[in-house]
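Below is a filled-in request sheet from our internal design queue. Each sheet records the structural input a requester submitted and the sequence that came back. We keep these sheets so that new team members can see what a complete request looks like end to end.

REQUESTER: design group, bay 2
PRIORITY: normal
MODE: inverse folding
CHAIN LENGTH: 215
BACKBONE (tokenized):
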């Protein structure tokens, strides 16, 4: 969970930064620059997702062994994380989609995006865990598929006739005037979310010390 929360911290922080930059350009009546910010934000979110996938999967065996030597616990952790983290790009894109629509004032779309993922997860968890007898792998798969449902919902809206935003190849080239403010504005929410990972590590360490693996 601390590592999964760190992935969320990166994607939430950057997406909020992109949201603020798009809102700034829209407030200045610069629609094309807002389009460019949205496109670049989407591309960079995908890049973040790939980097997080590789880094987090590589770090998980050592991270788990910080808390336990129980091979069963480590095996369960790796079964879940290898699936959940392999699709970090889905998490990153889904969050960026949501924040783009918040920026342009389409709050209903953003709300349905979140709700669709939550409802899908509630339904898919028992199906994969119990009906298909997949255990922790089923829990991870349900999480990823539910996030994919959210991403697909917003992507469908983005490519439909009701949106002013259009993904164009010319807007995908990163520009400092978009990227740097997005990173700067997203730093605060990133730090707030990332510190929760540290708190969880402290909790897990205390539970391990006083209650063992079961706790």
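RETURNED SEQUENCE:
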């Amino acid at each position: 969970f601390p590592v999964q929360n760190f992935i969320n911290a990166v994607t939430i922080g950057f997406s909020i930064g992109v949201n603020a930059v798009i809102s700034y350009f829209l407030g200045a009546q610069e629609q094309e620059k807002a389009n460019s910010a949205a496109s670049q934000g989407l591309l960079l979110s995908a890049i973040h997702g790939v980097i997080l996938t590789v880094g987090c999967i590589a770090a998980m065996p050592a991270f788990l062994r910080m808390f336990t030597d129980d091979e069963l616990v480590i095996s369960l952790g790796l079964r879940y994380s290898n699936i959940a983290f392999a699709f970090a790009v889905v998490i990153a894109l889904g969050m960026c989609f949501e924040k783009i629509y918040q920026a342009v004032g389409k709050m209903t779309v953003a709300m349905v995006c979140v709700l669709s993922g939550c409802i899908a997860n509630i339904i898919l968890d028992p199906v994969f865990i119990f009906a298909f007898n997949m255990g922790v792998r089923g829990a991870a798969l349900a999480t990823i598929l539910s996030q994919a449902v959210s991403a697909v919902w917003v992507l469908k809206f983005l490519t439909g006739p009701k949106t002013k935003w259009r993904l164009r190849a010319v807007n995908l080239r990163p520009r400092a005037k978009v990227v740097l403010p997005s990173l700067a504005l997203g730093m605060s929410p990133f730090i707030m979310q990332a510190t929760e990972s540290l708190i969880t590590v402290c909790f897990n360490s205390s539970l391990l010390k006083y209650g063992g693996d079961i706790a």
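SHEET NOTES:
- The mean pLDDT is 90.
- The two ends are 15 Å apart (CA to CA).
FILED BY: M.R.
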